[in-house]
Design a protein that fits this description.
The protein is about 25% helix and about 25% strand. With about 425 residues, the chain is of the alpha/beta class.
Length: about 425
Amino acid sequence: MARRVHIVGGGLSGLSAAVEVAGSGQHVIVHEAGPACGGRARSYEDKKLGCRIDNGNHLLLTANEAVFRYMGLIGALDTLQGPDEPIFPFVDLQKPCVWTLDLSMGRVPWWVFSPTRRVPGMRLGELLSLQRLIGASPDQVVSDCLLPGEFSRRLLDSFSIAALNTPSDEASAALLGHVINESLAKGGRACLPRFPKVGLSESLVDPALAHLSILKAEVRTGRRVTGIEATNGRVTALNFPDERIEVGEDDVVILAVTAPVAAGLLKEALPALVVPDEFEGIFNAHFRLERPPVPVGAFAKTRFVGVVGAVTEWIFLKDDILSVTVSAANRYADRDPEELGRQIWQEVRQTMDGLLAGPLPVEPPLQRLVWEKRATFAATPAQLRKRPGAATGLVNLALAGDWTATGLPATIDGSIRSGVAAVKALGLRGAMSD
């Protein structure tokens, strides 16, 4: 009888683990509590807007090797799109200015010497901030490393909040330094922006489910694990509301759920387990227009723009939908969502003036406001110390999730890496074996 690999959780970390081990002669079973897989990176039909939208905006970079390897395995690389240049348009609403960060393709940052390609108003001496971030100690926060000036205000602070989903005066400088080492420091070829042609599910979830089906893996939705039994240092059973599944001597379990759920399920089996317990929110506003607007300039190539000096941080255009992402949203927790949505729409109108062929309406069109109160763990030095590795004190159990010790923030790339790490921690034969 084939070894059973129980994967609890059908988000990207669980799907990554399933894809990694499926087809290796083991019986893979994914248990997903919800009605659909994908977790925080999926698409759904929104009745209010009358169309399909993503539950959040995610921008990938070509540096995200784990993501592209995963997409290669599931045959989904052709579902992404993006410009052929490492360009990032920005609009500053505080000190009105429009520019495009235009990185050099190679490792030598020639772009910093060109006033038309770098951040307006920056001084070359401010580049020392990058060196300070890369060499930061585990206890430093991002703001400790940022030199005053436009390079920090217009780029590094925005980049930090987007990457870590934590305010710069709280976020780990060392973690941001690691992200810079894996992206910007490698040059423009590692920083080509990529995003789904259709939606997150169509790129990251549906192809994975089709791939798993071909390889005879089981994906069971609506199957919430309510308890995990363990005896003599190993998991012996998974409990569901309507049944108990015994975990055989050769079987293994990968727990790919959120940190609070993992802690709850393992409070008896692994009472000493420590996980991140502070979280940051993300606020998304989706606006559907009467007809698709016509983008111009760099915005026509990227279909996204960064915003500085506003609540709005990133705006994405997809057909007739303008979607806004506000990271580290805990700072707006006392704001009324509807009032926040009205302010964001006015900021969108200001930002889009000159980026679209025509003006946007004064009043917001159809809109959907989504506040994820616990979108990611807070990427503070204290919380980073609470991230566990994939291996656990139970020999047949491994952890996966963007909250585990991936070396990355809570990102798609981190989620996918964590699934691979869990497979390796259990000594399973994965996709790169042989």
